[in-house]
Design a protein that fits this description.
two-stranded antiparallel sheet; globular; five-stranded antiparallel β-sheet; 90 residues; Cathepsin D, subunit A, domain 1; mainly beta
């Protein structure tokens, strides 16, 4: 298993993520998560965050079922380096 940091938003909120080659979504803990531990993504802290308008989406990963919202924002592999604007995540 490979993991490492990703930096989200204009304020570069850092998250240690698992690089899952079997998934097509990046999933991070959001500010409204009630059962999450660790860092929380706060879209209000980024001037480029955009909610994609879906009220609640569902993702199934093996035996886990995740409920959340879809967003886009600037996401970087290093602080302000190797960035993608409007990157979609869950």
């Amino acid at each position: 298993m490979y993991h490492g940091p990703l930096f989200f938003g204009t304020n570069q909120q850092e998250f240690d993520v698992v690089y899952d080659t079997g998934s097509d979504w990046v999933v991070i803990d959001g500010k409204s998560c009630k059962n999450c531990e660790g860092n929380f993504y706060d879209p209000s802290q980024s001037t480029t965050a955009k909610n994609l308008g879906n009220p609640v989406s569902v993702r199934a990963y093996g035996s886990a079922i995740l409920y959340g919202t879809e967003w886009t924002d600037k996401v970087c592999l290093k602080t302000m380096q190797a960035c993608i604007d409007d990157f979609e995540y869950f």
